[in-house]
Design a protein that fits this description.
- The complex is a heterodimer of chains A (about 110) and B (about 110).
- By secondary structure, chain A is mostly beta strands.
- Chain A contains no helices and 11 strands.
- Chain A has strands spanning about 5, 10-15, 20-25, 30-40, 40-50, 55, 65-70, 75-80, 85-95, 100, 105-110.
- Chain A starts with a strand and ends with a strand.
- The relative contact order of chain A is 0.34.
- Chain B has no helices and 11 strands.
- Chain B is an all-beta fold and about 110 residues long.
- In chain B, the strands form 2 sheets. In chain B, strands 2, 4, 5, 9, 10 and 11 form a 6-stranded mixed beta sheet that branches.
- Chain B is about 0% helix and about 55% strand.
- Chain B has a single domain (about 5-110), classed as Immunoglobulin-like (Sandwich).
- Classes of the chains: A mainly beta (about 110), B mainly beta (about 110).
- The interface between A and B is medium-sized, with 28 and 22 residues.
Chain lengths: ~110, ~110
């Protein structure tokens, strides 16, 4: 069964902290994605990766970076967390047919 | 940027009724997909319709696509309380590489027992 896992379901961090969100997929997919989801705004793409060490900016990359050292793992990094980065973060990997999502990480920055 | 726009934003119906959600988009597409999201969870793929298809069925789901109007609809027949969720359309745009999808803002469906 297809599986995308995210390191935490809930996370609380302080302003200015460096935050790592981890995503792991077990389907050998090349493409992986990070979204954030806010009420009324739907899903917005932060970054995506199409191969190890390869990445592309999405629509809202500011304040974020990513790392993909291994095919199965795609990390989202908040270099210096701010309160406006409080959100639900969703990771996905994709087959040619569909995207598979992790359960999400609800991040609160205080 | 979003591509699809769902309508209505919220829909409230009784069990047993049908639920129809619409999606409009702006550019040429390879396919259009519908996803479901239960509260506080990730999205789950429901159905995909290719640009050369007009209608597709899967269980109680029926999807139509009108590429001339750049619109799609998702019909859930004989709805159940368990269908309560948010529903998103997503497009794979023509010429798009890397499998990037463009999601709408979603329709919140509430089905009352």
């Amino acid at each position: 069964d297809v599986k995308v896992t995210q390191s935490s379901r809930y996370l609380v961090k302080r302003t200015g902290e460096k935050v790592f969100l981890e995503c792991v997929q077990d389907m050998d997919h090349e493409n992986m994605f990070w979204y954030r989801q806010d009420p009324g705004l739907g899903l917005r793409l932060i970054y995506f990766s199409y191969d190890v060490k390869m990445k592309e900016k999405g629509d809202i990359p500011e304040g974020y970076s990513v790392s993909r050292e291994k095919k199965e793992r795609f990390s989202l990094i908040l270099e210096s967390a701010s309160t406006n980065q409080t959100s639900m973060y969703l990771c996905a990997s994709s087959s040619p047919r569909e995207q598979y999502f992790g359960p999400g990480t609800r991040l609160t920055v205080t | 940027s979003q591509q699809g726009e769902e309508d209505p934003q919220a829909l409230s119906i009784q069990e047993g009724e049908n639920a129809t959600m619409n999606c409009s988009y702006k550019t040429s597409i390879n396919n259009l997909q519908w996803y479901r999201q239960n509260s506080g969870r990730g999205l789950v793929h429901l159905i995909l319709i290719r640009s050369n298809e007009r209608e597709k069925h899967s269980g109680r789901l029926r999807v139509t696509l009108d590429t001339s109007k750049k619109s799609s609809s998702l019909l859930i027949t004989a709805s159940r309380a368990a269908d309560t969720a948010s529903y998103f359309c997503a497009t794979l745009n023509r010429g798009s590489t890397l499998g990037r999808l463009y999601f709408g803002r979603g329709t919140q469906l509430t089905v009352w027992p």
